[in-house]
């Protein structure tokens, strides 16, 4: 199963542990909007909270490109406060896991 499919399945199942198994121990995420970066531990805490909240919804997603080195996918998200965003995820891969993720979001409200 492709990494994108595993990510999508873990999000659909709201299974944070399965998602975090796809993330390398040396992982870092960078939010383009704020420039802030987070470690796997910090990201894991955020992801666990997001997956536990039924008002955090992935409305749709599509894979733009996936290879052994990079995964690019686009999602439409609805947040608990009702705001909606289009989010581009660009992930660099190492050993079949995400080692670096950068996101860019555009408000749809």
Largest pleated sheet: 6 strands, mixed
Strand order of the largest sheet: 2-1-6-5-4-3
Shape: globular
The percentage of residues in β strands lies in over 45%
What does this structure look like?
The chain has 109 residues and is of the alpha+beta class. The chain has helices at residues 3-13, 16-20, 40-52; strands at residues 23-31, 37-39, 57-66, 70-78, 84-94, 97-107. It has a six-stranded mixed β-sheet with strand order 2-1-6-5-4-3.
Q: Would you kindly provide a brief summary of this structure?
A:
With 109 residues, the protein is an alpha+beta fold.
Features:
6-stranded mixed sheet, single chain, 6 strands, globular, 3 helices, alpha+beta, 49% strand, 109 residues
Q: How are the SSEs placed, and which strands pair?
A:
Layout: H1 3-13, H2 16-20, E1 23-31, E2 37-39, H3 40-52, E3 57-66, E4 70-78, E5 84-94, E6 97-107
Parallel strand pairs: 1-6
Antiparallel strand pairs: 1-2, 3-4, 4-5, 5-6
